[in-house]
Amino acid sequence: xxxxQKKQMTINIEPSSADKKSEQKNKDFGQYFxxxxxxxxxxxxxxxxxxxxxxxYDFDIPEEMRGLGxxxxxxxxxxxxxxxxxxxENMAGILLDMGFEPTSSTEDADVILLNTCAIxxxxxxxxxxxxxxxxxxxxEKPGLVIGVCGCMSQExxxxxxxxxxxxxxxxxxxxxxxxxxxxxxxxxxxxxxxVVEVWSKEGDIIENMPxxxxxxxxxWVNIMYGCDKFCTYCIVPYTRGKExxxxxxxxxxxxxxxxxLGYKDITLLGQxxxxxxxxxxxxxxxxxxxxxxxxxxxxxxxxxxTSHPRDFDDHLIEVLAQGGNLVEHIHLPVQSGxxxxxxxxxxxxxxxxxxxxxxxxxxxxxxxxxxxxxxVGFPNETEEQFQDTLSLMKEIEYDSAYSYIYSPREGTPxxxxxxxxxxxxxxxxxxxxxxxxNELSAMKNKQLEGTIVEVLVEGESKKNPxxxxxxxxxxxxxxxxxxxxxxxxxxxxxxxxxxxxxxxGQVVENAEVKA
Length: 515
Hints:
Helices cover 32% and strands 20% of the residues. By secondary structure, it is α/β, with parallel strands linked by helices.
């Protein structure tokens, strides 16, 4: 931890004229601004220092804090990506070790943490809506602790908005100091002031935090933190910090533990997962090397996300081509099919380079399914450039895609560009893109009719408890009739009907699954 991270100060915020009327109605308004406060700074977050990242194995909850949650319940609500899910598992593990019990009911909770996402405006709006909905509950239960954490809390504008307009929030902390949760929560409970601690420069790697995993089949294993790509539309490099890779031996040990616990499907996580190891100063070791070691562990399925095309090297492809427990599903975000727009996005590859990579993957891993992310309506995108995106979708023949309308994120370079594509045009392009995505997905699923696939049975279907559901190695959702005793097992299923986003099948006893 550097000195800036350690520095704390007491501040008083001068309310605006609009806020003064509110302050007159609420005599306690000012107390929420007399607090220990570490200011999030976009300027600091943009800096990429050369400080060595330390790895710590000494995380511990102080004895006096272990019983802090006795008789109390917590709820962690997660928004956004798998990395946020992973962080929520860590927070839940810490709270359990402090004596809290989990609950799914906001009314029963004594601590509510909102683990937020900043990547799109819609996600941010959802969080502020939830913060507003919790205000009546806070009035009813003054002892309730409401916390906001995750990527949104790393943004100056968000923290300032909470400070000014949402005084019922008790705790704000960032993505780099989750290990500080016991201390921050203690302060929030006993100091009766809003506690804000957000480090704008990333912290060290904390290895031995407790974790309460969701389910017992699929596990997330974080292999690195942060991103150094600085795509012009993306806030993640500022909220998550520079790239820091965990040591291979720590990752491998965690995966082996999950194997011993019976996990069947492991996802290696990183904001830019295939940049893994590039920050190591003393060894040449990348994601391909790590995957080559992990494939020897007795877990049926190993996958990773999210990839950046620029870092997807030949060695990784060669390792994936060996198959075995390395699955054939690869998520490869492209964002646009037009080279000029890709340049404006600072993706640092051309359409032609992306197509070359995709074809190389398909050649080496013939049964691979490719999925992607697409943004429509980026500043200056013309209809002709959008048509390039549609043509790329058809050329690659993605099995599915996540599609989004561009929305500017404050603090990113793209936010300074003129958002000159009208909203109605963005919506029209999104609809046309989704029509192509649906068409391709239906076509790809249709090709599976009559084939036999391996399905990891995850549980009952959400729509029908008499139907089971699970996923193939290529991440296709399959619904079929079966006994609940096979939940958690890998079974052979013959596909009898293809739908746009799922498959219907029937379990077969003896089957030969084509590789």
